[in-house]
Amino acid sequence: MSEQPTVTITDNAAKRIAQLIEMEGDRNMALRLSISGGGCAGFSYGFSLDKETHDDDVAFEHGGVRVLIDETSLGLLDGSEIDFVQDLMGASFQVKNPNATSTCGCGTSFGV
How far, in Å, CA of 24 to CA of 44, rounded? Predict the structure, then answer.
């Protein structure tokens, strides 16, 4: 029997998700993290706010917010950490993905 895949949400990410949801004015929303083919390293991360949960979604919760990930994307994200980082380059969600064997300079795409 295999274990359930896991994704961790940092406190910083949870706070930023809560701010975005508050700005949208719909507390039923969640952050959706998806992976699509493309990007300079093979796959790219996609972030959006979504109020619909699909049959193949797995929800992860932390700090009163939810992150939705479809089962296909979750296979490539197992063990990852979602963080929100502010630095001199700007502010963005970042995924620390132990499954990625390579990443691009912009940090939004990866290879396995």
Answer: 25
What is the rounded CA–CA span in Å between residue 35 and residue 21?
21
Distance CA 95, CA 25 (A): 26
Euclidean distance between CA atoms 77 and 110, whole angstroms: 11
How far, CA to CA in Å, does 24 sit from each of 21, 29, 49, 70?
A: 5, 9, 9, 22
- Nearest Cα residue to 50 out of 32, 69, 77, 37: 32
Three-state DSSP string of 82-99? EEEEEECCEEEEEEECCC
The residue count of the chain comes to 112
pLDDT tens digits along 10-43: 999 999 999 999 999 999 999 999 998 876 667 8
The two counts, helices (H) then strands (E), for the chain are 2, 9
Q: Quote the pTM value.
A: 0.85
Q: What is the mean pLDDT of residues 51-79?
A: 95
